[in-house]
Each structure stands twice: as C-alpha cells, then as structure tokens.
Amino acid sequence: MEKKMKIFKKEERDEVVLPLITNYLNQFEEGTGSFNYDEKKQTITMSGKQNGYFITLTAEKGIGETTTQTKYPIFSRKSDYKDEVLRLYNELNLTQREIAARLNISQSLVSKLIREV
C-alpha cells in the first residue's frame, strides 16, 4: 500500500515548513543560504556554505519523511572540481545539471570538465 503524501494547508505550512527552513538557513554562512519550496511536490531544497563545504539538503514527501543531504568541499580553483565531477558523472550517472546543483557550479563548467577527459 502506497503511503499518501500529506498536503499542508497554508497555516500548517507556515508552522512546519518555515521553521524548518529558518533552522537550516541559520546554520549556513551568512549570505550563502538559499532554499526552494515546491508546494506541489511538498519538497524543500536548501543549500549553503558551512565550514569549507557546500551543503545541499532536501526534505521530501510530507516534509521530513525523507531527507537527503550532500556535502562537497569548496575548491579554490575550478579545475579542482574535475575528479568529483567525473566521479558523479561516471559512477552515479548524474546529469550535468544534477552535478552542477550538487557542487554549486555552472552546468557549462561541468560540461567543460567532462569534455576534457
């Protein structure tokens, strides 16, 4: 039996979603946190920098039932991303757009790094 996703009413959303977003954004370095709330899918995606890492957190299916987090080092040079881009592309079969979002770099840089092989 498939579990149905809870759809929040506006009041519930304000009580559940906004505190979750605020809690995580406060943990990121000032000015680096961002979020996207997809009301239709009931998904929150937050990202920011923390202690030399770029972190992405996704809460899905009723906010909090499924949570995934990725953590990648922030490199000083764009060329330093090459090994991680190739690993994500070849081992995890992620798209260029997905890799760019995870590493907080442009899709065009991902494409360039893959072509250099």
From TrEMBL:
Pfam families, per database record: Sigma70_r4
Record field: transmembrane: none
Database matches in InterPro entries: Cro/C1-type_HTH (IPR001387), Lambda_DNA-bd_dom_sf (IPR010982), RNA_pol_sigma70_r4 (IPR007630)
One GO term (biological process): DNA-templated transcription initiation
Residues of the signal peptide: none
MF GO annotations: DNA binding; DNA-binding transcription factor activity
Segments forming domain HTH cro/C1-type: 85-113
Protein name: HTH cro/C1-type domain-containing protein
